[in-house]
Amino acid sequence: MNLEDITTVKSILSQPQKIAIIPHKNPDGDAIGSCLGLLNFLKDKGLQATVISPNDYPKFLKWMPGSDTILNFEKENSQCKKALEEATVIFTLDFNDLSRTGQLETVLKEKKADFIMIDHHQQPSNYAKVTYSDVSMSSTCEMVYNFIEYLGGIDSITKAIATNLYTGIMTDTGSFKYRSTSSRTHRVVADLIDRGAENMEIHQNIYDTNSPSRLHLLGVALSNMVILPEYNAAYITLTQEELDKHDFKKGDTEGFVNYGLTLEGIIFAVIFIENKEEGIIKISFRSIGDFSVNEFARNHFNGGGHDNAAGGRSEISMEETINQFNTILKTYKSQLNP
Ligand code: 5GP
Ligand code: MN
User: Fold this and answer.
1) In ligand 1, which atom is closest to the CA atom of 257?
2) Which of 94, 216, 244, 268 has its CA 20 to 30 A from that of 191?
3) Listed residues: CB within 5 A of ion ligand 2
4) pLDDT value at residue 338
5) Best probe residue, ligand 1, of 100, 143, 301 (max atoms within 8 Å of C-beta)
6) Using one digit for the tens of pLDDT, what is the confidence trace for 62-85?
7) Among the listed residues 97, 102, 100, 136, the one whose alpha carbon sits nearest the alpha carbon of residue 115
8) Does residue 309 carry a pLDDT above 90?
9) What ligand is nearest to the CA atom of residue 30?
10) DSSP E strand boundaries for the chain
11) Is 94 left (phi over 0), alpha (psi -120 to 50) or beta?
């Protein structure tokens, strides 16, 4: 954020405002962590604020401080609409385009309010009064930490704020191992621990709460994995039938895509997950090194994200999607054999 943006934000937040904070659809740890970190910070400043999620989010995030106050636009529609009507300021966190908010998109597009975007995804759209976008950042949570620092609020970071921000940085960096993890990220995380984040407990809350059915589903995913050595690629498919058989709950497939990358030499991993209710195949892409899955997802699967982690979708059947993917892959042979 430049000085002008900081001055603008300070001036906005010095007035009595009604604030809505919005994560992307199917929010992950970074989206929920950044929204709740900011929520707690704004509330502690005496401002009125509410987090409105486009839809539900995984159970393994539901312990996060303040998560019990999150409104769900799908389930608590009229309450959300009212909060949005009244809102004078709207923070949009961890996404780069209003289309990432699903059904909320039309409401937000028509809404007159001061929008403030905080995000680390590539190619941000231009809808906000203040756009704090930095694609080099590990996570939106690290950016919310910076945002609080810009506003001179570091010493008001409570245990609740520290816990939320720590969680999002941890989940978005694959526990501090992805390329975007900088020495600064580690300094921020160290400070969050000093301010009350219980790192071991947070890790356990997120990663050690598997259900037997989720681990069995992981088993199915791993045995479905197809390895394509000529492209240094691996992909997994999960059909709706397989999900149903294993009592699938939102979030159960989180992290499955990364197993492909643990194979020696594999630099491109993909998971295709059927969602019959939405009539789509949800796709996650991951890479190691210079192969940009953001470009791949944007160009072929109506998606986007970061260089090494992106998502997309397909509206044809699983079989047709895989055929399409295999055809597209042929044109990337040299890029995938650097
Ligand atoms: P995931 O594969 O975990 O759903 O998402 C990986 C990254 O890509 C996340 O940063 C997520 O926000 C982003 N992403 C996921 N799906 C989409 C999509 O459909 N469009 C765009 N632009 N980004 C996505
Ligand atoms: Mn993120």
Assistant:
1) 2
2) 94
3) 30, 94, 140, 172
4) 87
5) 100
6) 999 999 999 999 999 999 999 999
7) 97
8) yes
9) 2
10) 18-22, 48-53, 71-72, 89-93, 114-119, 130-133, 226-228, 233-238, 268-275, 280-287, 304-305, 309-314
11) left
Task: Single out the residue of 262, 312, 254 nearest to residue 288, CA to CA.
Answer: 262
Contact 324, 235 (CB under 8 A): no
| Mean per-residue pLDDT of the chain | 97
40/64 Cα distance (integer angstroms): 11
**Percent of all residues in the chain with a pLDDT value above 90, rounded to a whole number:** 100
Q: Is 23's C-beta closer than 6 angstroms to any atom of ligand 1?
A: no
How far, in Å, CA of 178 to CA of 278, rounded? Answer: 31
Tokens in use for 212?
A: 């037997």
Q: Is 304 in the pocket of ligand 1 (CB under 6 A)?
A: yes
Q: Is the CB of 260 under 6 A from ligand 1?
A: no
Question: Cα of 140 to ligand 2 centre, how many Å?
Answer: 5
- The structural domains of the chain, ordered by start, are 3-207 (3.90.1640.10), 212-336 (3.10.310.30)
Residue identifier of the C-alpha nearest atom 11 of ligand 1: 305
Which 3 state secondary structure label does DSSP give 130?
A: strand
Q: What is the predicted pLDDT for the residue at 319?
A: 98
Query: How far, in Å, from the CA of 330 to the mean position of ligand 2?
Result: 30
Chain position carrying tokens 């409401």? 107
The percentage of the chain sitting over the pLDDT mark of 70, rounded to a whole number, equals: 100
Determine the distance separating the centroid of ligand 1 and the alpha carbon of 76, expressed in angstroms: 25
The one-character DSSP state at 314 is E
What does the DSSP assignment read for 91-122? EEES-SSGGGGTTHHHHHHH--SEEEEEE-SS
Task: Indicate the residue type of 131.
Answer: T
| b/e per residue 271-285 (b: at least 16 CB within 10 A) | bbbbeeeeebbbbbb
